[in-house]
Amino acid sequence: MAALRLQLQVLAAAVVLAAAAGCGAFEFEEATVDAIQLGFRNGTLTSTALVRFYLDRIARLNPRLRAVIEVNPDALAQAAHADAERRRQASGGALHGVPVLLKDNIATRDRLNTTAGSLALLGSVAPRDAGVVARLRAAGAVILGKANPSEWSNFRRVDAGWSARGGQTVNPYVRSATPCGSSAGPGVAAAANMAAVTLGSETDGSILCPSSLNSVVGIKPTVGLTSRSGVIPITPRQDTIGPMCRTVSDAVHVLDAIVGYDKLDAEATGAASKYIPRGGYTQFLRADGLKGKRIALCIPCFVGIGGERWDVYTKHLDTMSEHGAILFADLDIATNFSDLSDQESLLMKAEFKLSLNAYLSGLLHSPVRSLSDVIAFNNAHPLAERLKDFGQEDLLDAEKTNGIGAKERAALRRLHDISTNGLERMMKEHQLDAIVAPNHNAAGVLAIGGHPGIAVPAGYDKQGIPFGICFGGLKGYEPRLIEMAYAFEQATKVRRPPTFKK
């Protein structure tokens, strides 16, 4: 059904593609949210034409890239509605009429599936839109479709970007390179101009990694800044939803639209709402945003970075200094976090079972109602789910857990100690605005404390494979991280569109 739906939508797009070219001289490829809104205002663009462009782009590129699982059969109708609204009133918000692709763990109450890439959830029906989707719809955005995740957001350890429903997502720059992270589909789709903007999720590295290795900007918000209601979970302690876009400004426009309190995720969003600045986040898009910022190198994060990449990072650090940043290269996160991954994994398995069972039990319809049902489904469909290749050991281990017991509480205390006596202490004692790290190498340190990070394109190696740089901070540091990321982006202008090498 999903494949047929995609084919029908592709045919519709092909028939009307010529109309997209009738909107004057609008440059569709690499179009930013600001450029799109200007096109709407000056009459060189309609939302309908924009959706048709992206549907055609998906039709041409998705057989190669596998970034999109499913397109929305109602996308053109939503675009026409946005165009009609615009004719009735002169202006809308930044995302009004703008097509958005969602990672396939973000629920929609429409004709799209929400499956986390698993065939087990095909045909399930969510009771309502996810909290972030409700906010996107309220902002007038067009839900273009669902992007391919690593199945179960890589809690089932598959190849990065593979799911039984979507196949293998491919890096658009160098086919042999990893697309990285469970939000690989949104990252690749954004990089390859298959949507104006995309939305991913992160538990530990799933936004920061695919953003870095597909040359896009990814914002991993403070946990609770964006609602997780209606999102297929791993752990509410670390899960967060954020934008993956081609520019910092686009990502910030999306962030502005999706932050805020949600009664269905009341504890986390209530606690984080205090961090949302009056006037939103676009006010922090400042070209001088590096000036006076105190930034420390995440020393352990640069271990193993050498050669040409180290040379590029060194130049970027010089650029930050030239733009007024105060860099600290002699500070270290003064705690041992060698056991971080083991403790995180132990705790996460119990949390995954609890939170997934709660999500599945709340669906209006679902072929599976528990983690044990998912495991049984995989056993019954070993070829489609590639059990021989990937197994399902983490799912089995999670099923063996029985809530949060003594081992899990000990792991929770240890992770709290690693965070408070490591990153948090260092940043507070030295009054730092951020740490800086290559790619997603600081993801674990940020994840366990619920802290935010922004990945920005940093360069390309000799093969043409992208790499990124990440600015990370403490809870609520989004304004200063946006200032730094935007200023860095404007000073370096690294990003270039993919060339789709073999």
Q: Please tell me how large the radius of gyration is.
A: 21 Å
Spatial arrangement of strands, main beta sheet: 1-3-2-6-8-7-12-13-11-9-10
State the end-to-end distance: 31 Å
Largest sheet: 11 strands, mixed
Percentage of residues in strands: 5-15%
How many β-strands, per DSSP?
13
**Tally of contiguous helical segments:** 17
By secondary-structure content and strand pairing, the structural class works out as alpha/beta
Order of helices and strands: HHHEHEHEEEHEHEEHHEHEHHHHHEHEEH
- Poorly predicted runs: 10-23
Shape assignment: globular
Helix percentage: 40-55%
What integer is the average pLDDT?
A: 94
Helix/strand layout:
Blueprint: H1 2-20, H2 33-42, H3 47-65, E1 68-71, H4 75-88, E2 99-103, H5 131-138, E3 142-147, E4 162-163, E5 167-168, H6 184-191, E6 197-202, H7 208-213, E7 217-220, E8 240-245, H8 248-258, H9 266-272, E9 294-297, H10 307-322, E10 326-328, H11 340-361, H12 371-380, H13 387-390, H14 393-400, H15 406-429, E11 434-438, H16 443-449, E12 453-460, E13 466-472, H17 478-492
Parallel strand pairs: 2-3, 2-6, 9-10, 9-11
Antiparallel strand pairs: 1-3, 4-5, 6-8, 7-8, 7-12, 11-13, 12-13
Keywords: Signal
Organism: Urochloa decumbens
Protein name: Amidase domain-containing protein
